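Progress against Task 2.4 (sequence-to-structure conversion) is shown through the following example record, which the project officer requested during the mid-term review.
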Amino acid sequence: MNRERWLLLSDGARPTEDIYFLESVAPLLRSEGHDAGRLEVRGWRWRLARWVLARQPGAHLVLCRTLPEPVLRWLERERGAFGRIRYLIDDDLDAAAEDATLPGVYRQRMAKAAAQQPRLLALADEVVACSEALAERLRERHGQVRVMTPPLIASLPELAHFGLAPSREQPWRIGFHGTRAHLADLAHIAPALQVLQRDRGDTELEVMLGGHVPEALDELPRTLCPAPLSWPRFRRYQAQHRIHIGLAPLLDTPFNRGKSFIKFLDITAMGGVGIYSNRAPYTEIVEHGVNGLLVGDDPAEWQRWLEWLLEHPAEARAMAQAAAKATDAQRCREL
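Structure tokens generated for the chain above:
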């Protein structure tokens, strides 16, 4: 067997890097006798990284979302010194740049990334996308595109928290742990959460958006709004905290159409049963009433299914268990 070396050139997209390579594919490569690791290329680290790369002729490279401009220029000049190049992408950058519902700063960052993407596509032998919808968009621009849906890299918890009788002292924990890119999705179902938190005394809502939480949810009773966490801190938080119900609304926008079902894995990793928008990518993995709930866009429908779960704790636990089985089947792939 020929020993291969795979190096991921890191521009700081740690969640994408870890999920789609370093904690999924890389361990498989190492188990087969190959080398695989991350090489930091931002800022002052680029000088050291360039020294390392110059001494790795024939190494295979993994690029993820973006590269610093000096690194990209150098790689374009030195492309012939390396083996295969894979480009990992988990967002429709062009759609994000044009989506007026997204925060302005986020759109600007995505526009900058989108402007660089054609050069990264030109370097890559193969593009690996997180969903079939995103892959279809990219096939218009590259001849070799395939799908790698998100693999599970977290441990799955026991579901002992479902055994506690919900009360004011031990409330149902409902969580939204999306990023600011999903503010509009969350705001759309806010009326359902308003009714729930005002009418009941046995639910606790957590919205991990800090000061960016939608105004409609800002002052609801029993609502926590912790600040977003860095990727390493979020992973520790995810491993230590439990929810009963996770929320994953997803409106029908060009940007959202390129999304993966990563939130199914995130919710299950915290021990919850998820309520998901009834559209791809969630329809690819969620079986309604078996391992989660698929719900239309009407906030009243979200309210109805939230209340149904609260009134049927045994069914909620059974769905959480089924979700854990489906999630565990997502452990990893080959690159």
